[in-house]
Design a protein that fits this description.
Zincin-like, 13 helices, flat
Amino acid sequence: MRLSDVAARRAVARLSTDSNTKKRLPGGVLEALDVLSAEGVVQQDNGEPLDVQTLALRDLHTLRALLLHAGVLEEPIAELPCENCGETFRIAPSSALETNPFVDGELDDPELDKRFAYQRHHAIPAIRVQTKRGARIARTVRIAHRTVKQAMALFEAEDAASFRITPAITSAMGIVALGNERRASVIADALSRAKPTAYQRIVDLLYEAHYGSRLVAIVRCKACGGRNDLDVPWVREIPYEMVGAPSRKEPFPDLDTFEQWVKEAAEQIFVSRGVRNIDLVVHDDVPYCDDGGEPLLGCYTPQGTDETLGIEQRPEIRVFYRTFRREHEEDPAFDVRSEIEETIDHEITHHLHQLAGDDPLDDEERDAITKETQKRVGKRELRRRAQKSLAEDVTGFVRTMWPLIALGLAATILSFCSAFGHEP
């Protein structure tokens, strides 16, 4: 399909004088629908008109994201803490969306662009389903494809003061079965009472079904370089957390307990892997990040000389307390002690490869980061950026070195003239 920037801006100008559309939630779905439904804004690829009501939700949200990215619609500025260091940054998330794969037609990645498995039973944490015949436990959910027209009840609830799951909302979401239960009223009641972990798993599936994996903005923190993945559009009609939902979190271990767990795991793993004389450090400050901006669970530093003190340092494994705490907060299934063991074992593998003179594991990790960047940005855009960078490097070199180049050229000319002048 084609999205006309000119027609969209014309529609925004016209709608801004309409008292009804002025009340729309800024950056919300209904505001986007008003613009996309205007004449000439969205067309089929052959130029024929396209009925926006027939669009799949994935397509609607992609078009909405593109309008926000282009600044046709105004997205509220989000003030967010960096997930790694906590430093606050302000951004309109859609402004950082990578749009080139959409423009260049590179939407063929088997992971990012895979079709969602509609009508399949997806596993979820247990939810209690209460019926007149008694209660039973549902461990799966089935989600159906939805068009804009079918989801209107969901969009109209977006402006409400509080979000409440009703049978109409359940149907608009596309939730057609919870375990063996298919009645929308029963499903709505069960979701309203579900534990946060189960509800959020269903929302994750709904985002995957109706938004798609490319609608994410990757923002690097200027303070620590950490990667922050932000939803695009930032305002979504399905809230990720229900207001007043109880917390299920088990307390994360304090620093002393965590250090003890690390020490116990290291003692066993060092013996089993046959290594020794490696320093082990629990780092409780801002975690280091890899080249892709992901906060590290752990890292390995080979033996070397301290550049400041000039003294020899032993190999070191560093474990990052804050990264473990963040993973524990985000993932209810995160097993802290098991992940400590896996992290230490992984860094010892780096150590053994380093002793052997070659670390293929490091090469694999860097290659994975490169491939992830290529998938998000697109091959054509990476080539364009490389060409631009090369041109800037050449221009910078010439700008910096032109006096020496000019002197060298002048000396060559003078030498040539001098030699020519002594010809008989």
